[in-house]
Amino acid sequence: MDVHTRHNINIVGAENGPTILLVHGFGCDQNLWRHVVDELRAEFRLILIDLVGSGLSDPGAWDATKYSSLAGYAADIREIVDELDLRDVVFVGHSVSAMIGALATIEDPSRFAKLVLLTPSPCYIDDDEYRGGFSEADIDELLESLEQNYLGWSQAMAPVIMGTPDRPELQDELAATFCRTDPECARVFARTTFLSDNRADLSRVSLPTLVIECAQDAIAPREVGAYVHARISGSHKVTLEATGHCPHVSAPAATAAAIAAFALST
């Protein structure tokens, strides 16, 4: 199956500019990057994709076994950059895709130049001194609710994830994006996302890395950003004066500025 069709790949922006691959998080799709794209397209070549099971990806590519592990998504990322013959790629991954990008570049860093982790979390569950933001019971309840009534879960969780009660149109857009996702795919991806633990992988990241966090984020609190930053050698961290887990939607200019400054840095 052609990777363009499988992942609904779109390439926009400056044809000869530095290449940035933008990868969305759980329940989302490439459309949520559009305001960041508007900020970056004059200077960068932007590769937009939908992960299998999300957005306008090919439904025939879905494999519940493959995508029960982040390694399945990471393999897709490596295949995309190989098939498109991309080089010196700046990988930008939101939320769970931050860890997908980390795994892809650990396995084969040769086609990547830099890694941008946007509101990342290597583990969502609190563990001894580690604070992931959720107890094990919290995650069990979240997954049970999602599995029983995905549309209801989407409507309830979108405001929490977006974190912008003064801008209800943003949480409505996120909820609508969630609701367009096939519930069966979402159930598998949710378990893959919220039960993964990639803390041990962070020290294996070899690329120059930027961690972008928000001043307030109910899904990935600042302790998580500090943890990721501390465990990726030589990484940089930027804290946006933004709330919520999706600053590319709620604060696209600041998010794009942080990405661009890092992408162009030497």
Report a brief summary of the structure.
By secondary structure, the chain is α/β, with parallel strands linked by helices. The protein contains eleven helices and seven strands.
Secondary-structure topology with pairs:
Blueprint (H helix, E strand, L loop, with lengths): L2 H5 L2 E4 L5 E5 L10 H7 L4 E4 L21 H14 L5 E6 L1 H12 L4 E7 L17 H13 L1 H13 L5 H13 L2 H12 L14 E8 L5 H10 L4 E8 L3 H4 L1 H13 L2
Parallel strand pairs: 2-3, 2-4, 4-5, 5-6, 6-7
Antiparallel strand pairs: 1-3
Helix pairs in contact: 2-11, 3-4, 5-6, 5-8, 6-7
Give a verbal description of the structure.
This protein is an alpha/beta fold. The protein has one domain: Rossmann fold, CATH 3.40.50. The chain is 44% helix and 16% strand. It is built from 11 helices and 7 strands. The protein has a 7-stranded mixed β-sheet with strand order 1-3-2-4-5-6-7, sandwiched between helices. It is globular, with a radius of gyration of 17 Å. The N and C termini lie far apart (37 Å). The mean pLDDT is 97.
